[in-house]
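JOB MANIFEST
job_type = single_chain_structure
chain_count = 1
residues = 191
[input]
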Amino acid sequence: MPPPKDGLNLSTTEPATLDFSSFASSSCVPLALTCGVAVLVVAVIVVVAVVCKCKRDKTQLKKKNARLQGEKEEIQGSVKTLKELENQRDQVKLELENLRDELKVKLEEVEREKEKNKEELSLVETELTEKQMAYEKPEELLRQKEKLLQDQWKLDQTKKDNEKLLLDMERLLESIEIQVTRNTDVHIYMD
C-alpha cells in the first residue's frame, strides 16, 4: 500500500511514522517560520512591556518611598516640637503653681494685717469716743483714725487684687490641665 499523501500511514498496525519529505517540499515551512517569528516577536514585546512596567512601578515606589520618608521626618519633627512645647508647658505650669502658692501666702498675710488694722482702728475709735466725752480735742486721734481707714482701704484693695489674681491663675492652670489631658489622649491615639 502506498503511503498516504500527508505522510501518515494509518492502515497498518505498525507504529506511525512521519514522512518529512512532504514537509520540506510543502508551503508549511515558511508558514511555520512566520508563526515562530511572530511568537518570538510577541514574546519579546511582552517581555519588554513587563520590564517597562516593572521599571515604572519601581520608579513610582521610589517616589512614594521618598515622599513617605519626608512625611515621616516631618511627623518626627512635629512630635519633637510637641514634646518641647509640653516640657515648656509643664515648666510654666510649675511656675504658676509656685506663684499661686506664694499668692495664697500673701493673701493670708494681708488678711492678718487687715485684722490687726481693724483691732487698732477699734482701739482708736474707742479712745476717740472717750476723749470726746471728756471734751478733749482728739485731733491726733482723728488723724490716726483717718490713716487707719486709708490703710484698711488699701488692704481691702490688695486683698481684692490678690484674690482676682489667684482666680485668674486657677483658671489658667485649669486650661493647662485640659490641654494636658487632650495631648495625653492624642499621644495615646498616635501610639
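[summary]
The mean pLDDT is 82.
DSSP finds three helices and no strands in the chain.
exit_status = 0
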